[in-house]
Amino acid sequence: MLAVFALALVFLVRLFVAQAFYIPSGSMENTLLPGDRILVSKLSTSIGTVQRGQVVVFKDPGGWLPVSTPQSDPLLQRGLRDIGLVPAVTEGDLVKRVIGVGGDHVVCCDVQGRITVNGQPLVEDYLFPGNTPIDCPDATGKCRFDVTVPPGDLWVMGDHRSVSRDSRLQPPGHGFVPESDVVGRAVAVFWPLGRASWLSVPSTFATVPATQPRRARPSP
After folding, report:
1. pLDDT, tens digit, for every residue of 108-153?
2. Catalytic residue among 41, 42, 44, 96
3. Beta strand ranges found along the chain (DSSP E)
């Protein structure tokens, strides 16, 4: 009976409080490496708001991920993942850094090649070594944009810009992520132990001026 109670408690924690995820790709290097296990807090988004600079896991808004054949898992592994004892692979989910929130004016780039948010340049020292803010994996090799994020939406980008498919590469109007699609905020790397660390918000985002109070995106 005690074991059943413990499993139920773990399941409820996974559902409402926190969940572990496995990182399968390099789009967030070197902040997150392939094979990292991260802890994602659901409370930070369910009772708070998503903030600029946070790393978040979110559901595919539609067409961001290539179509793939679902992989079958052994019954035991699937059951352990469902109750939260095994990290979930981010299939159908993405992990990126929030650059702009609802109301923000996000531009790439200024004359010095920096992304600006509400006119304030970002010092992106978290980028993958050798990458620049404008590096892009599409055919042109460069990404430029000038967007105002709608209320209730987010503008997200990977730290490994040259391989990250993110808000920049979506058709006009489809690069925004509804806050309602956010699973939670990635707060820590917990495995492998040699990489265990907290995922804090880079200090550059503290200098971004505020916009008007955020509102939910209207229902269609």
Report:
1. 999 999 999 999 999 999 999 999 999 998 877 778 999 999 999 9
2. 96
3. 18-22, 37-41, 55-59, 88-89, 93-101, 105-108, 115-117, 120-121, 145-148, 153-157, 177-178, 182-191, 197-198
